[in-house]
Amino acid sequence: MKHSSPLFILLCSVIMCGCKEFLEPQSPSEFVPKDANALNEMLLGEAYPRATIGGINTFMGLLDDDVAAAPYQEPNSTIDANRYFAPFTWQSDVYVRMEAAGIQETNTNMYAQYYRFIKGCNAALDYVGDMSDTEENKNTVRAQAHALRAFFNLQLVNMYALPYNHNPQGLGIPIKRTSMIESTDIKRNTIAEVYEFILEDLLEAERLYLSLPDDRQWATDFRTNLPMVQLLLSRAYLYMENWAKASEYAAKVMANSHLRLLDLNTVPTTGDAQGVSDARIFMNYHSFDTSPETIWLYGKVTDMTMLLSDNSVDADGRAIHTFFRASDALLRTFDAKDLRRDRYVTVSWFKTQTEGGALDYMPQAFGKVNVVNSLTTSYDIHVQFWASDGTNTTFGRSLRLSEAYLNYVEAEVQLAIAEGGAHQTNALARLNELRAKRFAPADYSPVTITDNAQLLQFVKDERRRELCFEGHRWNDLRRWGMPEIKHVWYESATREREYTLRQGDPFYALPIPNQALDLNPSLEQNTLAVRE
Fold it and tell me: What H or E segment, with its residue span, contains residue 68?
């Protein structure tokens, strides 16, 4: 990243001022940037979810059925367990409880953070037309701003509104098209309107990228790119159940010559670490250096794992293990020979009983990220170890090629159900192409399911295996009918309580934070769930 210029600093000060900053950005000042370089700097500073920025995920990993409570332990004396309890049991006052338990509002109010990013995108689009620069340079800025704005709106509408296929005319999120101050408070647009806006942005970003030279359509420089845009188009169309378009755009990503599937046979699980031989190691998959599947990087590692990986030592010397683990329901979906089980799921130094009753290292409810732990006498040698990705910047999430494969396969199976024809053959071909990289050659057998209903269920399970801990499971459950989920919370060593997220539960659309409601009285709160 380049050093910030005075031009960049002045522009950011114009953009970031104002009390209603995430819904009512300030209007452009009389100062206008001269060239695209200034706006590129501004985008990096104000619109990109960089590796140092949190508050866009925080507790989302605690909501779905891939996470379960770890065995009870006396909590760390400095920790209020409400920070975990509130999201894990889907409490309607989740923000109040978490903030009272010591989680800062900047982390719980994900709504605000996404709108701050949108503000940066809008400012770039508002200014770019007045710049004196080449059309190519201006289109580079426009392509990034449209791509980022679409990504943020897609994230927001899938957090704070019910799924598109439930009721497209239901309450979505407010659409912000400009950095100008609104003359009135902003109401929530419908879900359909939000998705239409997302598609407008993505299609415009695609058009702009296709007008640019190849080196501006793709570069491993952490900026948006053409396959990122096309993957998001595939995702949006999949969520809208436009199967033909979802398949079409996924196919474009799979055909991109810059990308290829990672063969998990090349990813080690043990190695030398800090003088210990055969230590358990885990690779960071969210990196251009380590994975040829990486399309775009975003987010902070601790933002994705903060509530899932709080290994610590209390004042009395007790080692505190994480409050959560990977659920048995998730682990059961992996075939015994599936390489993803040992490579995608990080394990703890703490041993716990497996379903069969044996002791084994506890599978944690996160994976695929850089993880750090010292190999000391206080811990067994089989701990998570930081595998450096060779860069100065480590991200917590990425868009990966494997999602394009799974979007394509699911869409093609749905088309096979509706139309027949060659769609089932297409789906099986791509499904097996992906799975061949997830097993040792001697252990791999192609999927040959011909019943479309059974194949669809297999594909859903395959999405769960391949995309675990990447933020997809919650959105998939939403669009697959918002099923019932049960979480068991251990209140003490002898007492546990089961909490239920009912089918179609209101919490499938997160409550809008009170800070947003206070700043914008026209916002309508989602229906709040009541837990027994």
Answer: strand 67-69
Q: What pLDDT does residue 279 have?
A: 73
Structure confidence by residue, pLDDT tens digits, 362-399: 899 999 987 765 444 444 433 443 343 334 468 999 99
Give one DSSP letter per residue of 237-298, joined into a string: HHHTT-HHHHHHHHHHHHT-TT-----GGGS-SEEEETTEEEEE-B---S-TTT-TTEEEEE
CB 169 within 8 A of CB 147: no
- Indicate whether this model's pTM tops 0.85: yes
Give the Cα separation of 347 and 349 in Å (integer): 7
Listing DSSP states for 463-500 in one string gives HHHHTTTTT-HHHHHHHTT---EEEEEE-SSS-EEEEE
Q: In the predicted model, is pLDDT for residue 27 greater than 70?
A: no
Length of the chain: 532
Cβ of 314: how many Cβ atoms within 10 Å? Answer: 15
Number of neighbouring beta carbons within 10 Å of residue 130: 10
Q: In the prediction, which pLDDT does 220 show? A: 94
Residue with tokens 């989680």: 103
Sequence-distant (6+) residues with CB within 8 A of 136 are 211, 212, 213, 216
Alpha helices (H) in 75-190, listed in sequence order = 82-88, 94-100, 105-108, 110-128, 135-160
